[in-house]
Structure formats: C-alpha cells, structure tokens
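Summary for the funding panel

The consortium committed to producing paired sequence-structure records for every protein in the target list. Below we show the first two records in order, beginning with the earlier of the two.
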Amino acid sequence: MTDTTLQNPVPAVPPAVPVPTHAAPKAAFTDGDSASRWAKTLPLLPVGQAYDALIGQLALLAAADTPPRERARIAEILRDQVSHLHTELARRYAGKAQPEGEREREAIDQAVALWRALWEQYSACLKPLLEGDPDLAGVKAKIIQRGIFVGKELILVHGLARRATTPSFSRSRAYGKNLRLHCPSQRSASSICRTVIAQGSARPSRSAWL
C-alpha cells in the first residue's frame, strides 16, 4: 500500500436503494351492495386519491367476469361518484386560458379516463342485451340510455376543455351503431329507442334503476 492510496482512498460504493413497488389494486367489491358501501368512502378522500381508487376499481370491474345485470347495477352506483369527481376536476380546467397548463391537462385526461372507463361497463352489457339475456329483459332501455348519457358526458368534457375528440372516441359512438346492426328486428330497435326517448334527456335517477 502506497502513500498515494492512503491519501486518495477509493470511495465506497453506496448501497443500492430499493425501488418501492406499488401493489396491484384489489377488488373492493363484488356486487352492488358492497360497491355501494365502498362508494361512500370516496367523498372522504382527496381528489387525487379518489381518482386513483375509482379508476382502478373500474379497470378491475371491466376485467371481471361479472353478470351483466350486476355490472349495470354497479356501474349505476359508481356513476354518481364519477359525476361528483368530474365536477371537482372540471374546476381545474373549465374556462381556463388556452393552451392548458400541466395541471389543467392532467385534470382533463383524468375526466376523460373516468367517463370512458364507466362507458366500458355499459358497453359490456350491450352484447348480452342484444342476445336476449333474460336478466336484462326489464332494463334494456335503461342500459342503452345510460350508455348514451355517458357518451354525452364524454363530449361535454371535450367541449369544456376545448379539445377535439380523438379517433379512439369513435368506440363510444359505435354504441348506437351496434344496437342497430345487432338488434333482432327493426321493430325491437325502434321500440327500445322510443322508450329511451320517452324517459327524457334529464340526468337519470339511480333510485329508478335499482
């Protein structure tokens, strides 16, 4: 060992810092009753945490093999929470100067993601509805009306944000097209559409659904 080595020691390699890993979210509910209990906890969370929790559960629900009637019921419960959270997010971007800043852009993206994730739930009910699932016999018009309502909310988000809709938005517009293409008869398609129109364009009430 030389004097030079003592004067200029080789620096020790710092220990590796473990990278924190986020556990995959687990399903917080399996049916409408448990979804209702879980949904009541969301208003107590900050907007960011509520968004992460809600978007995560909607993604899990989309991947789950849930009966269509129960899926529609859960979607109806979560629709109120999506609407409430969108109101909070809209405060961050609606009417703001253009082009939007990073904070406004994040809020817009989150609002679009929420409504699209909710729309996926109603969309998943469309195929069994058109195939004549007996469990959906009494709620066909309501499921279609809800899908149209959520699509309208997606358009509203883009309007408030002064954004043009993206090509992927055509998937939600295909909702009504699929109804026309796959309905068993023109008479049944017309009947469903007349029922939807008769319900009016007002914001739907969950009490009339459950």
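The next record, for a separate protein in the list, is shown here:
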Amino acid sequence: MAIALGTIDLTNFLNVIQLDPDSSHVAPNVYSIAQFGLYDHSSKFMNTILLDSEIIGFTMVWIKEDKLELKRLMIDKKFQQKGYGSTALKLIVKKALNMFCRNEIYVCTGSEIAEKMYKKFGFVDTGAIYEINTPIGLVIEKEFVYAEKLNF
C-alpha cells in the first residue's frame, strides 16, 4: 500500500469534501477549498492524499507574507493512527520545500496528536500562539517550524 499526493478536480471534489477528520480542530474541507480559491496566494498547492487510489486525506500549502505554510493536513478518521499522516507529511514537506525553493516550512495546530506527529518529524515549537476564528469557533493554535532541507 502506497501513499501519494493526487489532484483535486471535479471528478473527486465530492469525495474530498466528504472526508471526516473526526476533530474539533479542523474546519470542513469545503471551507478550506473555498479559502484556497479566494485568498490571493499565487504560490500555493492543494492535493488529495491517496492510499493506492483511494482518497484518504487532503492538504494545502501556500506562501503568505513570505512564510511557507502547511495550512492543512487532514486524514479521514477511518485511516488515522496508521502512519499515513506521517508518510503524507514527508511527501508534502518535500514537495513544498522543493517547489518553492525554501529551507523552512511552518505549521500551526491546536491538536495534541498532530503536535506529536510534527515534533517527531522534526518540527520545532516557535513559541508563537494564535487565536483563530474559524467556522468551528475560536481555536488556539501553536506554531511549529521545520527548518532543515530534507535529504530525499
């Protein structure tokens, strides 16, 4: 079984918005896709996360105020805690750093499970904490940075 990044288009849009993150920390995918389209970030990408050919997750990356951000990484609840998120994270970071010629990428999370995964991968807490108004309410998130070019 292989994890890969795929495209989001009209043929799989409904599958992507029906994914269930089973988390109070994650906005609905339809909101994130709209946000991706509406915000003026010329340097960005959005992908499905595939297990073989099945869509199991969704990711968004963009550059905002000259900061490369992993804005979204979600895995459907049926596929969580199986290592797929960690494998996808490696692919996403590699793609982002190479695509945008950067040596660091930032992520914010309010989830202890996600925080543990990011730290295990090598992300470091920057000390920044944000209060963010989202469709699911006010969310408190910590910021992390991965600041080393990966050797892939």
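Regarding this second record: Helices lie at 13-17, 29-38, 84-99, 112-121. The chain has a mean pLDDT of 88.
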